Amino acid sequence: MNIADRAQLALLYEVAGTPKPGNVDRARDHPNLRFEQFLAGAVGAGRALRAVPEPPLGKTFERAVAGMADAAGTNTQFGALLLLVPLCYASQREEGPATRVDARAVVDSTTVEDACSFYRAFEHASVAVDDPPEGMDDLDVRRGADAVPAVRDRGLTLAGLMEKSAGQDGVAREWTRGFERTFHAAGWILDAEGSAGDRAAGAFLRLLAGAEDTFITTTSGEAAASEATRRARAAVDGREDPSALAAEFVERGINPGTTADITAAALFVALERGLQP
Amino acid sequence: MNIADRAQLALLYEVAGTPKPGNVDRARDHPNLRFEQFLAGAVGAGRALRAVPEPPLGKTFERAVAGMADAAGTNTQFGALLLLVPLCYASQREEGPATRVDARAVVDSTTVEDACSFYRAFEHASVAVDDPPEGMDDLDVRRGADAVPAVRDRGLTLAGLMEKSAGQDGVAREWTRGFERTFHAAGWILDAEGSAGDRAAGAFLRLLAGAEDTFITTTSGEAAASEATRRARAAVDGREDPSALAAEFVERGINPGTTADITAAALFVALERGLQP
């Protein structure tokens, strides 16, 4: 398997893992988001990922999002791709799997043009996001390509943009902290037993137990994010049934999407280190 | 999505569809065959499929099987690929989706070298097959590459080989009959409602109700194949619960693998005609 294959398979294992409370998984759909749309999204993103490392990182991300949205008919894996794309670039070395140092180097090498492409990616998919931080209205991602002049004016690289968002977005935080949680979770996945899907579900629960999910904060509010993490911790400790929790969270629309994104990225790192199906 | 993307997505929708009595599906694993292995097999076959139409058909098939087996760690989709590969070649025309005429033309153009590659494919994956027809011991597929001299001696094309096997193998029969059941089932899939997986499961049941599955005959015997079709018909008519049937068939090791292969091929044809996730 090449790098793009591994990224696609990481997306597939992520959605296959069950129970992942609040997410679409092998056992559960959302009212307006089906399992099959995630399968299609993973396939649709493939062509862009296979072009790595030739195009600039931002272009690859934009094209991967466009391919995903075109195949899935909606946004399924925007955040997961935002983590997987730099990891694909980091995996270009000859010897051994990519390390956090490699990932940091990719982040540090991103440009203003990468940031512009990132904004353009929002034109292809409807992504739930918070209001921008204070003084950044001109950089609101919901402006899509309209924000490009402001990005250029400020000379903002994609890494710089992620730094500004790290306070409120768990995916951006991975960018700024050298994919700390991603690599940590990859270790759990490799050390666990069972199928790749079972390992994904276990890592997901531990990730959610370890930190509040910023996508829940954005879509359901701070109280829901705090509750989700508290109850994920209870599930990890065996005090809650994760399947019952999964049913309840889907019912209540509590969707730990950022935790799923990091799980997918962790699966990619684990696949590079020999994870079997 | 390009042709290879559609073939991969067809493999993914096939395994996602549930209930598909007796098969690995979104809700069921086999004791020694997991859902995740099918996901990996679909990804692993991709590189070979993307090379269509450059290499000869047989080479593409051999490489797709090798990629599948390498990623999945076992044989997951040998028969499905044997149907998908000629359909991928048939899809090379400029205008409109491939027709049965196109598929027949691809079959008719196969060569002795394609047949040799087909034999070599058996070196990459362990495939359950029957004894060869009378007078064909030297062509036993279990001989793998050792059978190549006999194939050359007889001047047997891949189409010719499929013709010899059509009496006992439902995949070979599709080759010789212009993919009749494949295109028929694609129509059901397009006319149905629900997710791609639901449509796949519905088509699978109708296919099984319509003809005995030759993979069941090979692995569980004629009586089991006949029972499976009789009970699938009952499920289609609403006289049996397909989910209960699925649990029972998995328990008893009754595996309609050929029907699943044709379902995957039908999904490819349907995807070319606009099937959405």
Protein described:
The structure is a homodimer of 277-residue chains. The first copy, chain A, is built from 16 helices and no strands. The first copy, chain A, is an all-alpha fold and 277 residues long. In chain A, α1 packs across α12 (196-210). The longest helix of chain A is centred in the N-terminal third of the chain and has 16 residues, at 57-72. The first copy, chain A, starts with a helix and ends in a 5-residue tail after the last helix. The model of chain A has no long low-confidence stretch (mean pLDDT 96). Chain A binds chain B through residues 1-2, 5, 8-9, 12-13, 16, 26-27, 29, 34-37, 39-40, 42-44, 46-47, 70-73, 195-197, 276-277, and chain B through 1-2, 5, 8-9, 12-13, 16, 26-27, 29, 34-37, 39-40, 42-44, 46-47, 70-73, 195-197, 276-277.
Portion in beta strands of chain A = under 5%
Count of discrete alpha- or pi-helical segments spanning 4 or more residues of chain A: 16
- Oligomeric state of shown chains: homodimer
Helical proportion of chain A, percent range: 55-70%
Mean pLDDT score of chain A: 96
* Low-confidence spans of chain A: none
Structural class of chain A: mainly alpha
N- to C-terminal distance of chain A: 13 Å
Describe the main β-sheet of chain A briefly: none
Number of strands of chain A: 0
Which term fits the overall shape of chain A?
globular
Element-by-element helix/strand order of chain A: HHHHHHHHHHHHHHHH
